[in-house]
Amino acid sequence: MLRGYYTAASGMLAQMQRQQVITNNLANVNTPGYKADQSSLHSFKNMLIQRLDPSDPSNTSLGELSTGVYLQEDIPDFSLGSVSQTKKSTDFALVPTQVPTNPNTGQAGTLFFTVQQADGSVAYTRNGQFAVDPRGRLETANGDLVMGANGQPITVASEDFKVAADGRIYENNRVTGRIDVAYAADPNQMVKLGNDLYKAGTNGDRLPSALGNQQIGFNIKQGFIEGSNVSPEQSMTDLMGAYRTFQANQQVLKAYDQSMQLVANKVGQVE
Predict the structure, then answer these.
(1) Do 254 and 201 belong to one domain?
(2) What's the pLDDT tens digit per position in 117-154?
């Protein structure tokens, strides 16, 4: 009977973790470029139950017993969010038009802006809400520098510049730089760093550039921003489902507790 405690308790813990994922998504529903986390529940390996009978050497199998569930790691959903116009020259929406499908996963790859963090390390983001710092460098809201195709931070003379769909930057009708666009063939390997940033895998490998790749097409839309791809309606439905499942497991746990109380108080009692 104690196994029932573990099964119900694991279900409650899994739903608590799922609730945290969903509420974090809802908290970022208005964050530009935010990608909703997806999670799924998986069962622990079942135990094979056999009857041990000295008179039956074959040890008759009685079936399998589930040992509970757990929440698998969160995987971001990199589908494109809604694109809205802001008319700000430092806002950019990175819209893919042609991206290869990964033959191993069956999913399309993902494009990112490349940024340089304060420690010099490279990271990637879908949030194109940038600004120009006092030194004329294009930066994110967190102060990370937006990288150009030449591997150097992008600098502009002022906010009065134009960006073509291929990322080329024009000032006074002259090309002064180009925004780098990185390509992740398997976005499921991207690791969240926080502040809308990702790194490529656990080792922080550098992603290849999408510039010049004939198999990849994209448009950089200046004066537009990509919003979050979180669906508030679906998230609220999932949140209620997680809450009700938690309650169901809680009731099972209470039922087991009452049964154990009866066993402790009644079994072996001399009348």
Answers:
(1) no
(2) 999 999 999 999 999 999 999 999 999 999 999 999 99
